[in-house]
Amino acid sequence: MPEPKPAPVDPKVALQKLVNTKAFMTSLFKGGVIFVVHDSDQAKLAEKLGGRGLIIGNAMRKGIDHEHVVSAAGPAVVRDILSSVLLPIIGRVRVGHTTEAQIMEACGCDGVDEHEGMATTGAKTYKKFNNKIPYIAGAKDLNTALQAIFEGASMIRTICGGDEDKPDIRVTANTIKAIYAGIGKYAKMTQPEFDAEMLAKAHSQTMIALIKQTVALKKLPVPLFADGGIMLPMDAAMMMSLGADGVIAGVQVFQADNPGRRIRSVIMAVAHHDNAAKLAGICEDNGALGAAVNYKI
């Protein structure tokens, strides 16, 4: 007898399963610290000390006109880091650069971070629902966060404000405040006011449902991570107290006088952000940053 044919898969059901899988993957980062790294030594140290995940930082390349081009790290670097640790690895790419994202996925990365600090390639955003690995997107307020989620982002991080070499921690804090302020604004609206707002912005029913879900949860329906200028344990703790689900620590923590102590203090500060007594001890000796810091996002 011929074997029975498998039942056809509903594309909508398959897509929802994929979305749910990616949402679960990013939820594993919550309550932890993701470290930006540039080589396998940094990756190994972050893993050893309790990092929750890693972002492979950008590469600075010299173009034919001798101008520097910021792009995703090369496949050789990516594979070297992937082979050195067991932590989830996220590849950082230029906004809208679908090819860089595909290369990161082909190399074996567990996620992709579209970073505004790297040159965009025309299209600012694109739908990401059919990508097999989760995408992280930057946001400056509730509107940009919701738009990114609407387009398929499985995790939101604050944008890196300030100069390229010196992200501003104040922008990071203010972005988290702006996201929650936006949620609070919607929560205070009457139904007629909400309906008028949706009509004025010409939102689709899908976006309206997303907004209603966010208001009901009183937070974003995907993890929100603080990113930009987080070098100190007290700063990491403050981001958590403002409502972040975790933090992304820049590569400069590896350039501290005592990188191991600094990394561990940031991790511990996130874990104990609501305990001032423990934070005092954590912040007392956290491996001061050296005087010369070559900061890369």
Category from helices, strands and their pairing: alpha/beta
Order of helices and strands: HEHEEEHEHEEHEEEHHHEHEHH
Distance between the termini: 61 Å
- Give the low-pLDDT segments: 289-297
Q: Count every helix, treating DSSP H or I runs of 4 or more residues as helices.
A: 11
Oligomer: single chain
> Which percent bin holds the helix content?
40-55%
How do the helices and strands line up, and which of them pair or pack?
Blueprint: H1 11-27, E1 33-37, H2 40-48, E2 53-56, E3 59-62, E4 68-71, H3 75-84, E5 89-94, H4 98-107, E6 111-115, E7 135-139, H5 142-150, E8 155-158, E9 162-163, E10 166-167, H6 169-188, H7 191-200, H8 205-217, E11 224-227, H9 233-242, E12 246-249, H10 259-271, H11 276-284
Parallel strand pairs: 1-2, 1-12, 2-5, 5-6, 6-7, 7-8, 8-11, 11-12
Antiparallel strand pairs: 3-4, 9-10
Helix pairs in contact: 2-3, 6-8, 6-9, 9-10, 10-11
